[in-house]
User: Which sequence fits this backbone?
C-alpha cells in the first residue's frame, strides 16, 4: 500500500524549483498559480536566496506549489493518484497539498488559502520574537516535560526521536543552555512559533476565509495531523486545517496510522527528504522515494507499479 506525503516549512532551499521548470507545462502552471496567489513563485523558487524564502508568507505558498507540481509530474491526471494511493498526508502546511491531492479542495483554492495562511502566520509571528528548535534524542516523555518546564510547546511530535519545540527567543535560548538529558538541540530556520498559541490570530483570519471555499469529501484516505486519524469529511478536514495552525502537529501518530493501514511504500513530494527520513527510522521496511528533482520521477513510478492499491478500495 502506497502513501503520498507532503513536507512542511523548512524543507525549501534556494533554487529548488529550477529543475522542475524544464518539464513541459510546469512554467505555465506556476505562472497561473502565481497569478492566483499574488506571488511570483518562479522567482522565489529559482532566484531568491535563503533569507527571502525563509519568510513565512513566501515559504508556505512555494512549498504547496512545489508539492503539487511534482505530484502532477508523476500523475498528470490527479484521479490516477487517488486511484493508486492508499492514503495521503501532509506535515503542517503540507496538509494543504494533501487536501488538494485528495480532491478536498482545488489546487487554486489551496494556493489562495496557503497565501493567506502564510501572511496571517507571518503577521502573528511579528508580534513577539519567536522561533522553533528541534530536539533530537532523549526519552520523549522526559523531553516534553522539560520543554513544558521552560514554557515551550512541543509543537511538532515527529516521531523517530524528534520533537520540535516552539516559543519565544528567550525560552529557546534557555533550552539551548539547558538541554533535556540525552538530547541534542538544533535551531530551525523558521520565522515563528508555529502550531502554538502565538498563532491564534492567524486561525481567526483563516476562519473568515474558508466559508467561501468549495469543499468535497476526500477521494482517498486523508490522515490528519491533529491526531493521526483518517478523516472522511471534507468539511472536517478544512476545519482541522484551520485549527492546526495553533495546535501541535502529531506526525508520530500519522506514522502509527500508516502502520495500521499496512503502508509498504511512501512517496514524498517536492522538496522531498524530511518525511522520508523520518519514515526510514520509524517505519522500517517501508520503501521511500523523495522527489527532490525530476530525476526521481522514474523511481517513483516504479514504486507505484509495485505498491499501488486496487482501484476499487474505498476511501474511509
Assistant:
Amino acid at each position: 500500500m502506497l502513501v503520498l506525503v507532503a513536507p512542511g516549512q523548512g524543507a525549501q532551499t534556494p533554487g529548488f524549483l529550477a529543475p522542475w521548470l524544464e518539464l513541459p507545462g510546469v512554467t505555465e502552471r506556476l505562472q497561473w498559480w502565481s497569478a492566483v496567489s499574488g506571488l511570483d513563485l518562479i522567482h522565489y523558487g529559482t532566484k531568491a536566496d535563503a533569507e527571502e524564502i525563509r519568510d513565512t508568507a513566501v515559504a508556505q505558498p512555494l512549498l504547496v506549489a512545489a508539492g503539487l507540481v511534482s505530484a502532477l509530474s508523476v500523475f498528470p491526471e490527479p484521479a490516477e493518484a487517488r486511484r493508486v494511493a492508499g492514503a495521503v498526508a501532509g506535515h503542517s502546511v503540507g496538509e494543504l497539498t494533501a487536501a488538494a491531492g485528495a480532491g478536498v479542495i482545488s489546487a487554486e483554492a489551496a494556493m489562495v488559502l496557503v497565501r493567506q495562511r502564510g501572511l496571517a502566520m507571518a503577521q502573528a509571528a511579528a508580534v513577539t520574537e519567536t522561533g522553533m528548535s528541534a530536539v533530537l534524542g532523549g526519552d520523549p516523555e522526559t523531553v516534553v516535560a522539560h520543554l513544558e518546564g521552560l514554557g515551550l510547546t512541543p509543537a511538532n511530535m515527529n516521531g523517530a526521536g524528534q520533537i520540535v519545540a516552539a516559543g519565544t527567543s528567550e525560552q529557546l535560548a534557555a533550552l539551548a543552555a539547558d538541554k533535556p538529558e540525552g538530547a541534542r538541540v538544533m535551531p530551525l530556520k523558521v520565522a515563528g512559533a508555529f502550531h502554538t498559541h502565538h498563532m491564534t490570530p492567524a486561525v481567526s483570519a483563516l476562519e473568515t476565509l474558508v466559508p467561501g471555499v468549495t469543499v468535497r469529501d476526500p477521494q482517498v484516505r486523508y490522515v490528519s495531523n491533529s491526531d493521526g486519524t483518517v478523516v472522511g469529511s471534507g468539511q472536517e478536514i478544512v476545519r482541522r486545517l484551520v485549527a492546526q495552525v495553533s495546535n501541535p502537529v502529531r506526525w508520530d501518530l500519522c506514522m502509527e496510522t500508516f502502520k495500521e493501514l499496512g503502508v509498504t511504500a511512501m512517496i514524498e513530494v517536492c522538496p522531498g527528504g524530511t518525511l522520508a527520513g523520518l519514515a526510514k527510522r520509524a517505519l522500517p521496511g517501508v520503501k521511500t522515494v523523495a522527489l527532490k528533482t525530476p530525476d526521481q520521477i522514474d523511481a517513483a513510478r516504479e514504486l507505484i507499479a509495485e505498491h499501488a492499491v486496487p482501484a476499487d478500495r474505498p476511501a474511509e
Remarks:
- The chain has two domains: 2-125+197-307, 130-187.
- Residues 56-74 form the longest helix (19 residues).
- The first strand starts at residue 2 and ends at 6.
